[in-house]
Amino acid sequence: MFVFHRLLVCSHNPGKIREIRAILSDIPMKVLTAEDFPALPEPIEDAKTFVENARIKARSAYEHTGCWALADDSGLVVPALGGEPGVDSAYYAGHHPDRAQREQANRNKLIAAIQQIPIEQRSAYFVCTLVFLWEGGEAVFEGRCEGVIIPEERGPHGFGFDPLFWIPEQGKTLAELEPTEKNQRSHRARALQAFRTWLLAWLPQQMPLA
């Protein structure tokens, strides 16, 4: 497969990167990550919405590398908790430097938070907003996944809050879904599928003329 363009996925999260690479695996672009640019600065995500935080990451990456940039901001929203963890999902329980320990602390905090909430009010949804930035403009895509928060972890797959996010119609948590199945049903998968559909129509217009 001949590649004309490079796509920088603005993330250090290996789980996200695996999902993105899998869904875009047949697209004729070289997919890079932040690990390919050691000097790439870490932007401050201080916005109040998912789309603005994604835009901050995409703009920073594009300005420093010149690569087409794809950034996402995603998180878990629990209406009964006033929308928490929301845009603070990654650091819900604090900024522990170890990712695995930070994610476990986040899950522990969420389990504690829902104990006072009646079972029938534990509905939640994951949201993922993607911002794709290139020299000619910007495109935004969003995906959602509806579910319920359960008080115990289930499943060996996934990351973050996946082991606590029960999908009633599947009878499983996101972490119990096989990766290929999650890549069809998750919030990020839905946003990426929308991006992929758009990209397949748009990309041929960007190919150099022979």
Could you write a compact summary of the structure shown?
The protein has 210 residues and is α/β, with parallel strands linked by helices. It is 31% helix and 24% strand.
Architecture overview:
This protein is an alpha/beta fold and about 210 residues long. The chain has a single domain, classed as Maf protein, CATH 3.90.950.10. The protein has five helices and seven strands; from the N terminus they run βαβαβαββββαα. The protein has helices spanning about 15-25, 50-65, 100-115, 180-185, 185-200, and strands spanning about 5-10, 30-35, 70-75, 125-135, 135-150, 165, 170-175. The protein has a seven-stranded mixed β-sheet with strand order 2-1-3-4-5-6-7. It is globular and about 55 Å long. The protein starts with a strand and ends in an 8-residue tail after the last helix. The model has no long low-confidence stretch (mean pLDDT about 90).
